Amino acid sequence: MAGTVASLALTLCTLLSTAYCYNYSTERFRVPVDHFSFAVNDTFEIRYLVNADHWREDGGPIFFYTGNEGDITMFAENTGFMWEIAEKFKALIIFAEHRYYGESLPYGNNSYTEPKYLGYLTSQQALADYADLIKYLTANQTEYNKSPVIAFGGSYGGMLAAWFRMKYPHIVAGSIAASAPILQFTGLTPCEAFYRIVTSDFEAASSECSNSIRKSWKAINNVTSSDGGRAWLSSAWQLCKPLQKQGDVSALKDWLIDIYTNMAMLNYPYPTNFLAPLPAKPIKVACQFLPDSKQEEKPLLQSLFKAISVYTNYTGKTKCLDIGEDATSDLGERGWDFQACTEMVMPMCSDGRHDMFEKKAWDFTQYSDTCYKKWKVRPQPDLAVKIYGGKDISTTSNIIFSNGLLDPWSSGGVLRSMSTSVRAVIIPEGAHHLDLRASNPADPTSVIEARRAYQYFISTWIKQYRKQQTKKKRLLSRNTTE
């Protein structure tokens, strides 16, 4: 009966698209600030969310979400697949918060003040936090009856889920790594690939739409070249702060790039409220306002304002547009910006011909200088590849890399299976980790089939794990007898 009620609740949550649908308790676990040296003895608490409604404590699996760059409650409420299959597998659900995000701040309000406090924000340290947490959660289980751990994650969280299996195979039995761009690094993926996928999403909706956006950059430059033009655009676009100098115009264009990118990532087949309230297929909705790329500059920019309002003001409640607010502000942009300035250096560029953006080359020197100005650190572009292997992951096992072809991050994803146990799952109609979201009547067949495949592999990994545990137990018994 309890399972039926839970299933009904999940169905209602999905249909109503409401937040806070899932029940969990909030716990905290103390970890070292630095797992890898003996010079710093500071500790702090990471937050994690727990649901044990269906868990069979004598060895039922642990479904472990490797938290990424944001408040962990947001990921818990947008990763319905884990919740939906927990009853079938009798699993414990854990959502672990990434250090320096949400409430898991090592040095409280000082955490982001200077490198001596912020320098422990790395993927390696976060994975060590998760390893310690799992050891704690399974401490009371017998050595040969421990719960197999299945890691889940989307985007950066998907990268962590994959790397967790690679670096801690004795702790993690298998990983579902959704939309995980582990190849979006220097020398592995062409820098122009990301924005070409964004462009293809808009072109698929309408060639006039992508052409309108391509032409809009010149229109913005021309209109804002005078004080009167900047005043006109500030009024026409209802900007909270008027454009006064060239730096404001550059900020406006960066803001637009974020919007187009996010719309591509969130081009889901049903309404969502993940980064912003959005309709189903938001790119298609936005492109309805851009039917004619031959418009004069000011009419074109007026049409563009209506198109971007699908992202910035779909509810109609926003009174003015704040371009100083990053389009992904709720995802912990400060922490991710620091990570992008240290180990997560993901080169991106555009040429203005094969994509709908202004021409912009990848300039690592300029990028490094900008990072130093903001954070007093210099990026290490080869660090992630050196630590995790880049394309050389043939020795690992039990990882599913899934990528939706609507998702620009698929440019850096694993798109071909590496072996029988490191599989690539391609979802042609999928946007950013759509497969980890809750089931929805509008889900394309490719997503439904992908989720079935995941359950098959999860079952296989759990059987493998239990078989290994049984074998160890028999060997121990034999050695004890002898």
Tell me the total number of β-strands.
8
The SSE string, one letter per element, is HEEEHHEHHEHEHHHHHHHHHEEH
What is the highest CATH level, the class of the largest domain?
A: Alpha Beta
Strand fraction:
5-15%
Spatial gap, N to C terminus: 49 Å
CATH architecture of the largest domain: 3-Layer(aba) Sandwich
Describe the protein's topology.
Layout: H1 2-16, E1 25-32, E2 43-51, E3 62-66, H2 72-76, H3 80-89, E4 92-96, H4 115-118, H5 123-137, E5 149-154, H6 156-167, E6 174-178, H7 193-205, H8 207-223, H9 227-236, H10 246-265, H11 282-287, H12 297-312, H13 333-340, H14 364-375, H15 383-388, E7 399-404, E8 422-427, H16 445-481
Parallel strand pairs: 3-4, 3-5, 5-6, 6-7, 7-8
Antiparallel strand pairs: 1-2, 2-4
Helix pairs in contact: 7-8, 7-10, 8-12
Characterize the structure shown:
This protein is α/β, with parallel strands linked by helices. It has 2 domains: 2-185 and 385-481, Alpha/Beta hydrolase fold, catalytic domain (Rossmann fold), CATH 3.40.50; 193-375, Four Helix Bundle (Hemerythrin (Met), subunit A) (Up-down Bundle). It is built from 16 helices and 8 strands. It has an 8-stranded mixed β-sheet, with helices on both faces. Helix 7 (193-205) crosses helix 8. It starts with a helix and ends with a helix.
